Amino acid sequence: MIIYSGKDYNDISRKAANIMSAQIIMKPRAVLGLATGSTPVGMYRQLIEWYRKGDLDFSQITTVNLDEYKGLSGENEQSYRYFMNNNLFDHVNIDKSRTFVPNGLEKDSRKACSDYNQIIHTVGGIDMQLLGIGGNGHIGFNEPGEAFETETHCVDLTESTIQANSRFFNNLDEVPKQAYTMGIKNIMSAKKILLIASGESKAEALYRSLYGPVTPNVPASILQLHPDVTVVADEGALKVIREKELI
Ligand code: GLP
User: Fold this and answer.
1) Is 103 noted as a catalytic residue in this protein?
2) Measured in angstroms, how far is the CA atom of residue 115 from the centroid of ligand 1?
3) CA distance 42 to 11
4) How far is the CA of 135 from the centre of ligand 1 (A)?
5) Of 34, 83, 138, 232, which is best to mutate to test ligand 1, by the most ligand atoms within 8 angstroms of its C-beta?
6) Of these residues, 136, 142, 165, 186, which one is catalytic?
7) What's the Cα-to-Cα distance from 212 to each of 4, 204, 223, rounded to whole Å?
């Protein structure tokens, strides 16, 4: 595992974009596993800027997103499909038919999940998986629990996640209570993982994920067992790790 520190959000966004760009340049047909949330927005902005300058070409790229709220259509502004179109896909030369997000409108959870697993297998697996991290250590929507869920599954979101994500909705009641998410096996099967974290609200989760015991209570802790993880975190997110003089 390599940890890169950045002084602030802009700094880590640029560093993460550099790493993702390298992947795109080295393998123009790469399959990128993408993430939503506020953390990757700056990285996506930087990628768009480099695309506009002519430095990046997305025409052969395939993407698979980590997760989607159950019950939201892609036109809903709070859906992760909408987020991806708005924050990246609409601004670069990607072929939208090769951008995949779980189908939030599929009511049959088993079908939604098995369809999505099939897509991940059909595209040939993920070359680089981008991850944010939840304040409770969740990745995608793999919430803390008794066991690591393997493949795409339907989750009941925890109260703390519903609360955290309510800032994007008009009120708490509008926040979906369930989501479809890639499982830990899907994530761990990616050839490379790029985890980005910003701000003190992530400091404890980041410390427990990178240096604590590997346990389903802290889903991101499984990443300690992945052979190729790059973490890009700002000083806020590294606060606890710095205090403990681990880096
Ligand atoms: C959501 C997403 C995660 C993301 C997390 C953190 O729960 N499902 O993929 O990592 O939020 O979001 P943020 O980057 O906004 O802190």
Assistant:
1) no
2) 23
3) 9
4) 9
5) 138
6) 136
7) 19, 10, 11
Alpha helices in 97-244 (DSSP H): 109-122, 159-165, 184-188, 203-211, 239-243
Q: What angle do CA 160, 196, 168 make, to 5 degrees?
A: 40
Alpha-carbon span 169 to 77, nearest angstrom: 9
Q: pLDDT band for position 149 (50/70/90)? A: confident
Distance (Å, rounded) from C-alpha 76 to C-alpha 176? 12
What's this model's pTM, rounded to 2 decimal places?
0.96
Rg of the chain in Å (alpha carbons): 17
Tokens linked to 84: 């991806």
| Cα 141 to ligand 1 centroid, rounded to whole Å | 8
Query: Is there a catalytic annotation at residue 121?
Result: no
**Distance (Å, rounded) from C-alpha 155 to C-alpha 140?**
11
The model's pLDDT over 94-110, given as tens digits with 9 standing for 90+, comes to: 999 999 999 999 999 99
Structure tokens belonging to residue 36? 């939503």
Q: Which residues, including other chains, have CB under 8 Å from residue 183's CB and lie 6 or more apart? A: 142, 148, 149, 150, 151, 152, 153
The residue contributing the CA closest to ligand 1 atom 9 is 140
